[in-house]
Amino acid sequence: MIEDYLKEEVGLTPKDAMEEASRCLLCLDAPCSQDCPAGTDPAKFIRSLRFKNVIGACETVRENNILAGICARVCPTEKYCEKACSRCGIDKPIHIAKLQRFITDYEACTKMNILSKMEPNGKKIAIIGSGPAGLACAGYLAKMGFFVTVYEKYSKAGGYLRVGIPEYRLPNKVVDEEIKKISDLGVNFIFNTAIDSNKLEELKKENDAVIIATGFPKGKTLDIFNDNKKVKIAVDFLKEVKEKKGKIKLPESAVVIGGGDVAMDASLTLKKLGVKTVTDFAYEEFEYFKASKDELLKAREAGVTILDGYIPVKATKSGVCTFTHRIIDSKVQIKTPLIILAIGQTYDLDNLGLSIEDFNSSDYRIKNTNLFFAGDLAPLDKNVVYAVRSAKEVTNRIIDFLKEGK
Ligand SMILES: Cc1cc2nc3c(=O)[nH]c(=O)nc-3n(C[C@H](O)[C@H](O)[C@H](O)COP(=O)(O)OP(=O)(O)OC[C@H]3O[C@@H](n4cnc5c(N)ncnc54)[C@H](O)[C@@H]3O)c2cc1C
Ligand code: SF4
């Protein structure tokens, strides 16, 4: 039901957080910190927490990761810091994400103001896109004294943070709080403005550098689903649900196609909104699933039936969908009023007059231009913590570029 969709998991109590921090081995080599893509330094903030220095922990987390409250909720830590945690060899890893959430919730409820900025340096930067990459670039550059303007095609900032990740995992209230920290650094936001190739040429002339952070906004599809009215693209569906705060009319049953986190988000969202039968068909078998274990478990616990190893081979306009198994001899036919396609997202660069090959460089710069890029467009993992990492790296890259002129 809608309340279920809108309700976020509760965080740790102070006592639980201190107990969890006290399990930390205070490792000298801090493998958790080495494996955080954004350099959040969990070993340092957990040490502060262990010695009851909550304010110090807040400072470490926010100074190191400008989107720390968001990462605390959505980072796939099981692939990074928690996988590296030395306690894995004893019992189970320290729950780093939950501790980070405790710390950033403390920061929010005590209204701490940790971020500061340097004197203006007279340089201007334009950023296209206000998803996590655009936001983090804006924050880091504003801190360094740049005059930053962010152009966003929608009426609000956040990208997939606002219109993709479901409310029960990432409430818009948290997104708003993190964006406020960035706008308080003096960042100028211009909304309802989609940049095209002509405007891009203007921005290149008017600014010392331009960052493209337009992400992967388009959901992929398959030819067999063309012009089929029963089909919705998962990212469009999740956007509609989040914008309407869950108030959307749904049928009694639905099929989801895909085995990644977006497919799990679509499946669980359907269940939370009261759809009785949700069946997910995934290309991968369970052991190779792309979705995080946690998301997969939650979807299964909510009653989503997941059939692994199947590919869709036919779909009729009346909603009869046929799947065959990739390995065993098995065919499944199912009639459904709604098919949600969650088979990946891709770039949309046509209006900017650029091609994806332009974004292949490891130094975040389009060759021989003052154009830089970050986030999903960079050849890195496609998630929020990597968006933050790319923002830190592109900030340093732009500082070098403006110093050296190359
Ligand atoms: C449903 C879903 C669930 C996810 N769950 C997680 C998760 O749990 N954990 C995680 O780490 N990651 C998750 N991700 C991935 C994560 O959201 C992305 O990797 C991240 O948002 C990429 O950031 P970005 O800034 O590059 O792009 P985006 O977030 O896509 O932002 C791009 C922004 O650019 C704007 N834009 C595009 N073109 C133009 C233009 N021409 N002019 C002006 N503005 C433009 C868009 O409107 C948008 O606001 C999820 C993604 C989805 C879709
Ligand atoms: S690796 Fe685990 S046990 Fe070691 S410092 Fe990091 S969180 Fe603590």
Automatic annotation (TrEMBL):
Pfam families the record matches: Fer4_20, Pyr_redox_2
GO molecular function, one term: dihydropyrimidine dehydrogenase (NAD+) activity
InterPro entries tied to this protein: DPD_II (IPR028261), FAD/NAD-bd_sf (IPR036188), FAD/NAD-binding_dom (IPR023753), Helical_ferredxn (IPR009051)
Upper classification of the organism: Bacteria, Bacillati, Mycoplasmatota, Mollicutes, Anaeroplasmatales
Keywords assigned by UniProt, alphabetized: Oxidoreductase
Role summary: Involved in pyrimidine base degradation. Catalyzes physiologically the reduction of uracil to 5,6-dihydrouracil (DHU) by using NADH as a specific cosubstrate. It also catalyzes the reverse reaction and the reduction of thymine to 5,6-dihydrothymine (DHT).
Organism: Anaeroplasma bactoclasticum
Name assigned to this protein: dihydrouracil dehydrogenase (NAD(+))
Keyword match Oxidoreductase: yes
All residue ranges annotated as the FAD/NAD(P)-binding domain in the record: 124-389
UniProt key word Cell wall biogenesis/degradation: no
Enzyme Commission number(s): 1.3.1.1
Subunit structure, interactors included: Heterotetramer of 2 PreA and 2 PreT subunits.
Enzyme class: oxidoreductase
